[in-house]
Fold these 2 entries.
Entry 1:
Amino acid sequence: MTFLEQLQGAERQNGSLLCVGLDPEPSKFPESLKGDASKIYDFCAQIVDATADLAISFKPQIAYFAAHRAEDQLEKLMEHMRRNAPHVPVILDAKRGDIGATAEQYAKEAFERYGADAVTLSPFMGFDSVQPYLKHHGKGAFLLCRTSNPGGDDLQNQRLASVEGQPLLYEHIAKLAQGPWNVNGQLGLVVGATYPAEIERVRSLAPTLPLLIPGVGAQGGDAVATIKAGYRQSKGATTGAVIVSSSRAILYASSGDDFAQAARQEAMRTRDLLRAAAQD
């Protein structure tokens, strides 16, 4: 199946728009694992097992593994997810952005070494920095579009005088992703949950693309406003999927040995909140 087909299947099977972000920080682990980077796989695998029937996707952030020399644990975790939650697609949050042969190597890293179903990318260097990922059949790529950090205004909210209509940079990215750049039909956009009005603007420019929306939970994004702004259905079928990511609020719901059960409860609460908003 292609990434979008996997995504649609997970949404139906799990009744979910929730993406569980996997950002393991050993200093925040429960007491029995705290500070031990060799336990990253053990911690994340228990989170995966506790939420596999609640998620539309999993999103491991590669930096949290690489910083602790835990790339081998990430490989093991990817295998665990494919084996124990094969219906839930995995988005590797890498935010790569380079050209030519280097981009080809990054694409191999994401899709061949780690076996990800999709990857996050920076589009700043243009289409030739995105194209190598689209050559991998059925694989997805999410382009940074309107991010939730305050510094996003520095570039994303600037007008492009050289482009017809002088759109903001993030609006131009959305149009390119909906149009000429989407050569394999598997592109999506990253839009932060802290800007619901701009989620709605991106949705109007990219009506069929999946939107990966981080920022709900610890970052303060409004889950209901996010769904209202970005989720679209037609005749009972999703036409504009949203993938609402929550990481810390789920991962660190408890500092005790019940951390996996607490993560499940928080994931279930968020999944149900998102689902109710989508059905309104």
Entry 2:
Amino acid sequence: MQPPIRVTIWNEFVHERQNAAVAEIYPRGIHAALAEGLGGNTDFATRTATLDEPEQGLPPEVLDATDVLLWWGHAAHDAVLDETAARVQQRVLAGMGLIVLHSGHFSKVFKRLMGTSCALCWREAGERERVWVVNPGHPIAAGLGACIEIGQSEMYGEPFGIPAPDELVFVSWFQGGEVFRSGATWTRGSGRVFYFSPGHEVYPIYHHPEVLRVIANGIRWARPQGAAADTPRHVPAEQARERVEPRGGSVAHPGQGA
């Protein structure tokens, strides 16, 4: 039996304490709602973290004990320290999974890993969103029908300034006519990254059972896949797996003279 997947749900936890409408939907914060919604998955061991905690909730010991990190941010992207973003980036490169939610597309963490603007078009009008499953055989789409219906959502539209996804799982259509690549994956170093866009704070999207199913599927998909790549190192000839026959003359190594 595999050990549980160690999940950390990070949320800046700003809107819920400043906006009464958001607090009504998420009285203990989006992070708590996600933790509760994912609580029925017995293969997860879940903790939460927020921006106002020591070391912004993500000290090295927390990240080292995290298999998959969920990231929700919006109003406080600039408050995230470069040091924090770099620490998360390095853990992803070393094999930790990352799920970036909704407006986390513009976080320092996601932009560092994508290397692009990650900008998009948007409109907040409470319109209907259909999240179409365009890759039904993908593990993140397991258990879903043809699409997810979300009654009220913020429109995110193309163009979306991301690198071409390794895999595109969902494409959203909005009542105003726009479409958006709303669920996409990448590999960065030894880590897997999944971006999933539904989740605007003024609508109860993280109470939607199919949205929670996608996130749970994403956690299982993004979990570490094996050992991280070792740091590059010099391997002397006497340590080679096969005998190395000298071919005449010594070989200069970087930093040595000829």
